[in-house]
Amino acid sequence: MVLIRPRRLRLSPVMRDMVRETSLERRQLISPLFIKEGISSPEPVPSMPGICQFDLKGGVGEAEAIREAGIKAVLLFGIPSQKDTLASGAYDPNGIIPQSIKAIKDKIPELMVITDVCLCSFMTHGHCGVVAKNNEIENDATLELLAKTALVYATAGADMVAPSDMMDGRVAAIRKTLDQEGFIQTPILSYAVKQASSFYAPFREAAESAPQFGDRKTYQMDYANVREALREAKLDEEEGADILMVKPAGSALDIIATVKNQTTLPVAAYQVSGEYSMIVAASQNGWFDRKQAILESLTAIRRAGADLIVTYFAKEIAEEM
Ligand SMILES: [Zn+2]
After folding, report:
1. Which of 175, 182, 217, 288: disulfide with 240, CB 3.0–4.6 Å?
2. Active site members
3. Dihedral, CA atoms, 158, 160, 166, 167, nearest 10 degrees?
4. How many other β-carbons are positioned within 10 Å of the β-carbon of residue 23?
């Protein structure tokens, strides 16, 4: 008799579950939250079915629902009613983000509030930095404003600040200002690797931050490059980042894995708006199962090495877990 050894492990379904290599848990998920000034009821984002911009009260209610679903943190984005060329709404102590931080922390103190730190949604031109007369981005002038913005958010009670602008030296500038003002314990989640990606398009509708001229390729990274991504991640680590984030996630799994191998910091990944909208659109067409696609995409991001995932599916999938 010829004995054929089974190719797969001789494990029961229970054992297979026990040895599953990658876990996906609610504590690993962060939910984005858009709060907009000057509206009185939620406004759906057409290119992101199921996602809304909330007024302040509605935003607090949504934050409560997110917490009730078992999610521990939100990533807050604010949309101001007024924009200018110095993004003054970003660092106005009474601006939409500081107001939102206070309102959420007041009602749900245990929910971690992470605030995106960028200028684009507060700028009339939609760029992430101060634009000079020749239409170039002024890096150093932008750093000052970013540091000021981060300080205003920390003062309002933010648990963590997340600079997403990609200017050179921003993590160091923010760290220095926070330390000088006594916020030595406020961590920085840095968008360390942010590729210039077509998958951000729906977000720009949600955050109303599309550039009015040019593009962001001068300050975002070429998606063809892994080593450049590593270099940037390393710089952010040296400047004092506490968590490194890679964005987008699904098309950059190798970059998540490489960054994870090269750092001892926690690594986060942002499953961006386009990744969300693709899954939603295909499942709405009946082309695949929504829940299974969400679980698979998030598990793949975890498998690549992300300790934390920012995802628009956080609340929905948490309720399933
Ligand atoms: Zn920006």
Report:
1. 175
2. 194, 247
3. 70
4. 9
Percent of the chain exceeding pLDDT 90 equals: 83
Å from CA of 113 to ligand 1 middle:
19
Residue 107 in tokens? 């009602």
- Whether the pLDDT of residue 206 is over 80: the answer is no
Interval 268-273 mean pLDDT:
98
Contact by Cβ (8 Å): 56, 35? yes
Mean of pLDDT over the chain:
93
In angstroms, what is the span from residue 281 Cα to ligand 1's centroid?
A: 26
- Per-residue pLDDT band for 207 (boundaries 50, 70, 90) equals confident
> CA 140 to CA 290: how far, in whole Å?
44
- At 31, is the secondary structure helix, strand, or coil? strand
Contact status, residue 85 vs residue 123, Cβ threshold 8 Å: yes
Q: What is the pLDDT of residue 135?
A: 83
- HSE-CB at 95 with a 13 A cutoff on CA atoms is 24
pLDDT at 321 over 80: yes
On the question of pLDDT at 218 being above 90, the answer is: no
CA of 166 to the centre of ligand 1 (A): 8
Q: How far apart are the C-alpha atoms of 261 and 229, rounded to whole Å?
A: 13
In this structure, the strands spanning 160-163 and 189-194 are unpaired
Token output for 280: 């939603």
pLDDT at 57: 96
With beta carbons less than 8 A apart as the criterion, state whether 183 and 154 touch.
yes
Kindly write down the DSSP assignment for every residue of 172-219, as one continuous string.
Answer: HHHHHHHHHTT-TT--BEEEEEEB--GGGHHHHHHHT---SSS-STTT
Please name each of the domains of the chain with its CATH number: 25-239 (3.20.20.70)
Distance CA 162, CA 76 (A): 10
- Residue 3's pLDDT band (boundaries 50, 70, 90)? confident
Angstrom distance (rounded) from CA 201 to CA 31: 18
